[in-house]
C-alpha cells in the first residue's frame, strides 16, 4: 500500500502527465454528464434505464456499451459505436478498394484523409440509425408525446441532435487521445461499462436470499476470469532473431548479441474486433426473432456467435498481420530467424506460426463471448452476468492495460519506478524485443 501511494505521488510530480490526466478525467466527466441529458420532449421515466431489468435483452447490451446513454434516450444515445462501425468499414475497404489502399500507404497525409472519410461515413451511419432508434425504441415505449411523433420538425431536430451527439462523443475521444492519456474512443466505452458495474453488483446482492457467500464466490470467479483474460491478451510468442554482420568503418562488425532479439507475435492479435464484428451481425436475428428463441443468453445465439468469432478472428488477423511485409522488413534490416532463409521461406514460416497461434486465440475469444450465458445458466443475475465476458470484459482489460502502459512510460522516462515493476505485464518491453514489423 505504501508503494502504491508513492507511485501516485510520482504520477502527480510529472507535470506533463498530471496535465494529461486532468484533461482526460475532465473530458470523461463531460461525457458522463452528457449520457443523462435527455432528448427534447422525451419522457425518460417511461424508458427502461435499469440494467437489471433490461440486461437479458439486446437493448441492455447496447445500454451497457453506451454507459446508459442508449436506455436514457440522451443526446449521446448512439455514442461511439457508429464511429467504430465506420472505422471497421474503412478497414474492410482497405482490402478491396485500391484508392483506400493507396491512402493507407501515404503515411500521415493518408491517415488524415482516411480519418476524414471515416467521420463522413459516421455521419451517414448516424443519420440512418437515429430515426430507427427514435421510432423503434423510444417511440415504441410511449416516451414521446403523440403531437411530437407526428411533427416533422421535431423528427428532423431530434435526428440532428443525435448525429451531433455522436460526433461530439467522437470529438471528445479524439481530444483525449491527443491531449490526455490512453485511447480516447476506447476509454469512453470503458468508463461507460465501469459506470454500470456497481449497479450490477448491487442488483445481484439484493436478488439473493443469502447474498454474502454467493456474491463472494461470484466475485472470485469474476476475478479469475479477468486474470485469465489479462494473461491471454498479453500473451506473446517470441520468435528469436539474429542480425547479419554489418560493415562499419571499413571492417565487418557482428550484430549486437548482448541482448537476444525477438519478433513478438501476439496470441490475440485481433483484439476485441472479432466479437464486435460478430455481435453486429447477430443484432439482425436478435431483432427479428423472439427473445425466448434467440435471446443473448440463449443456446443458438451463443453457438452462432462463437462460430462467427472464430471465423472473424482468422479474417481480422489476416488483415492485421502481413507475413510477407514482415519478412521483407526483416531482410531489409539484416535480420533473420535462425534456421530459416530470409525472404519467402521466412514469410511462409511466420504465416504458419500465426495460423497455429490464431486457433487457440480464436477459441479463447469465443469462450469469452459465451461466458455471460454460462454465468447466467449457473445462477448469476442477468445484469452481473454481462460482466463475465464478451465485449465488455475484453474492452475493459485491454483499455486499462493500455492506459497503465502509457502511464508507465511517462514514469520510466522521468526515472521513476513504474506502476508495473516486478510484473510480467507487457508495459515493460525487454531490451531484445523488436516491434514495428
From TrEMBL:
Transmembrane feature ranges: 21-39, 75-100, 120-140, 152-173, 185-206, 212-236, 267-287, 299-321, 357-378, 384-404
Compartments where located: Cell membrane; Membrane
Keywords: Cell membrane, Membrane, Protein transport, Translocation, Transmembrane, Transmembrane helix, Transport
Pfam families the UniProt entry points to: SecY
Principal place of residence: membrane
Quaternary structure and interacting proteins, as annotated: Component of the Sec protein translocase complex. Heterotrimer consisting of SecY, SecE and SecG subunits. The heterotrimers can form oligomers, although 1 heterotrimer is thought to be able to translocate proteins. Interacts with the ribosome. Interacts with SecDF, and other proteins may be involved. Interacts with SecA.
Role noted for this protein: The central subunit of the protein translocation channel SecYEG. Consists of two halves formed by TMs 1-5 and 6-10. These two domains form a lateral gate at the front which open onto the bilayer between TMs 2 and 7, and are clamped together by SecE at the back. The channel is closed by both a pore ring composed of hydrophobic SecY resides and a short helix (helix 2A) on the extracellular side of the membrane which forms a plug. The plug probably moves laterally to allow the channel to open. The ring and the pore may move independently.
Family under the similarity heading: Belongs to the SecY/SEC61-alpha family.
Protein name as annotated: Protein translocase subunit SecY
Amino acid at each position: 500500500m505504501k508503494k502504491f501511494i508513492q507511485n501516485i505521488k510520482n504520477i502527480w510530480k510529472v507535470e506533463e502527465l498530471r496535465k494529461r490526466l486532468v484533461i482526460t478525467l475532465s473530458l470523461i466527466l463531460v461525457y458522463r454528464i452528457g449520457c443523462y441529458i435527455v432528448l427534447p420532449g422525451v419522457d425518460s421515466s417511461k424508458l427502461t434505464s435499469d440494467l437489471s431489468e433490461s440486461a437479458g435483452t439486446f437493448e441492455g447490451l447496447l445500454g451497457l456499451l453506451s454507459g446508459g446513454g442508449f436506455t436514457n434516450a440522451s443526446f449521446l444515445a448512439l455514442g461511439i459505436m457508429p464511429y467504430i462501425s465506420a472505422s471497421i468499414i474503412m478497414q474492410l475497404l482497405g482490402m478491396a478498394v485500391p484508392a483506400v489502399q493507396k491512402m493507407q500507404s501515404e503515411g500521415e497525409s493518408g491517415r488524415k484523409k482516411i480519418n476524414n472519410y471515416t467521420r463522413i461515413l459516421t455521419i451517414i451511419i448516424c443519420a440512418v440509425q437515429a430515426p430507427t432508434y427514435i421510432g423503434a425504441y423510444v417511440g415504441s415505449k410511449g416516451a414521446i408525446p403523440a403531437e411530437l411523433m407526428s411533427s416533422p420538425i421535431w423528427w428532423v431536430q431530434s435526428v440532428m441532435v443525435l448525429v451531433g451527439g455522436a460526433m461530439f462523443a467522437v470529438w471528445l475521444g479524439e481530444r483525449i487521445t491527443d491531449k490526455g492519456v490512453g485511447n480516447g474512443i476506447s476509454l469512453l466505452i470503458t468508463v461507460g461499462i465501469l459506470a454500470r458495474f456497481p449497479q450490477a453488483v448491487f442488483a445481484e446482492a439484493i436478488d439473493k436470499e443469502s447474498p454474502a457467500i454467493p456474491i463472494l464466490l461470484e466475485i472470485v470467479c469474476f476475478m479469475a476470469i479477468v486474470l485469465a483474460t489479462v494473461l491471454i491478451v498479453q500473451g506473446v510468442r517470441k520468435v528469436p532473431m539474429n542480425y547479419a554482420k554489418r560493415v562499419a568503418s571499413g571492417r565487418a562488425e557482428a550484430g549486437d548479441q548482448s541482448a537476444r532479439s525477438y519478433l513478438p507475435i501476439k496470441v490475440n492479435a485481433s483484439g476485441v474486433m472479432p466479437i464486435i464484428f460478430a455481435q453486429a451481425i447477430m443484432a439482425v436475428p436478435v431483432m427479428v426473432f423472439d427473445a425466448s428463441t434467440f435471446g443473448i443468453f440463449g443456446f443458438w445465439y451463443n453457438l452462432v456467435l462463437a462460430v462467427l468469432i472464430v471465423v472473424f478472428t482468422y479474417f481480422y488477423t489476416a488483415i492485421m498481420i502481413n507475413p510477407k511485409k514482415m519478412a521483407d522488413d526483416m531482410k531489409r534490416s539484416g535480420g533473420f530467424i535462425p534456421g530459416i532463409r530470409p525472404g519467402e521461406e521466412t514469410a511462409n514460416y511466420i504465416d504458419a506460426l500465426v495460423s497455429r497461434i490464431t486457433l487457440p486465440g480464436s477459441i479463447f475469444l469465443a469462450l469469452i463471448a459465451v461466458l455471460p450465458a454460462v454465468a447466467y445458466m449457473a445462477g448469476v443475475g442477468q445484469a452481473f452476468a454481462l460482466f463475465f465476458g464478451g465485449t465488455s470484459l475484453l474492452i475493459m482489460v485491454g483499455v486499462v492495460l493500455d492506459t497503465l502502459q502509457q502511464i508507465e512510460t511517462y514514469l520510466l522516462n522521468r526515472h521513476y519506478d513504474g506502476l508495473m515493476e516486478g510484473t510480467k505485464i507487457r508495459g515493460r518491453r525487454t531490451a531484445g524485443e523488436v516491434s514495428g514489423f
